[in-house]
């Protein structure tokens, strides 16, 4: 199927051609026709599958088909969990709508609201917002939502995880009941289904099950290593491999800052993004990484939700996530646009249970790299590996480029 067959306008098709988008992804192919028919949609698709365009394109189409008054009122509202994702979504509206007269603005926390207020007063058709800042502007009577005809809840599972549910309910209470509501999520737990029952009317459920396809494009490997040796192993890998960009994930903000200091002391300049960083600092860090000025970016899961980098060489899970779905989100940052990606994970004793859950979700065993200088000490190690893995892959069969330059350390016997 082509974008033209989906019934999109010439103005949108022109922008898609210019941006190099030749055919719709699965989630776009399934969702766009229903959205154009003004149906409520509950869509589930993994990161990197094009779900943002799945609602952006038909939203632009619908606005183009409806007459607008001389003064622009907000017709489309998109709620995003993070600042980075909000900015990325705003940019997508502008890129796909470059040959239209539509105006899109963004409001988010972490920066002075003055410029955002000015944008709102000039009038916009589409507003992308994080819940906290939007609610603040509503309380100040700066934003009115009485003209909304399309409401989008993007990354709904993340917004629930971040505790935005009460803010979202307050916002939705000010949106007209007669509207189209679209909810997109990377996962479909019962909490999301229950939320959909509350906000959506007779929704079309679309599940683009692309987890295995996304994972299959990525060369995955895992190193068993004690937590105290993770930094040394990371330094060895980063110094040995010729990569243009590496995204490293930690579980906590403190862990991200601590790791950044270690890398800096070892002549590895890096950028860090997490929730405690100001919006200005996060944007600067992301721009430096995307432009290649910094080859290493350290991030927590929530802060990384808005990262979209086409040619990302590799992702390193310095700490495994405690949710298996987060692993898929993380490694999905690499291997995009038809490129083959690389995902490396470190696993210490406390993380073997996470690894087992991850492998059940992706329905495959991750290759174990045993030929490295910091193997986990042999205390009940074989039993832990047996629990985490159904089979093992010899490093001789590995397609990884990394090879230790120093003498191999053999596993010690059980003591």
User: What is the total number of structural domains?
Assistant: 2
Structural class: alpha/beta
SSE topology string: HHEHEHEHEHEHHEHEHEHEHEHEEHEHEH
Distance between the termini: 61 Å
> In CATH terms, what is the architecture of the largest domain?
3-Layer(aba) Sandwich
Primary descriptors:
Rossmann fold, 14 strands, 2 domains, globular, disordered C terminus, 415 residues, alpha/beta
Helix and strand topology:
Layout: H1 10-18, H2 26-36, E1 41-45, H3 51-65, E2 76-79, H4 83-96, E3 104-107, H5 114-122, E4 126-129, H6 131-139, E5 150-153, H7 156-161, H8 165-172, E6 180-185, H9 190-199, E7 204-208, H10 211-216, E8 218-224, H11 230-240, E9 246-249, H12 253-265, E10 271-273, H13 279-291, E11 296-299, E12 314-317, H14 324-331, E13 341-347, H15 352-362, E14 367-368, H16 381-388
Helix pairs in contact: 2-3, 3-4, 6-8, 14-15, 15-16
What features would you describe in this structure?
The chain is of the alpha/beta class and 415 residues long. The chain folds into two domains: 4-209, Rossmann fold, CATH 3.40.50; 212-397, 3-Layer(aba) Sandwich (Rossmann fold). The protein is built from 16 helices and 14 strands. The strands form two sheets. The chain has a seven-stranded parallel β-sheet, sandwiched between helices. α13 (279-291) links the parallel β10 (271-273) and β11 (296-299). The protein is globular.
Summarize this entry quickly.
The chain is of the alpha/beta class and 415 residues long. It is 39% helix and 15% strand.
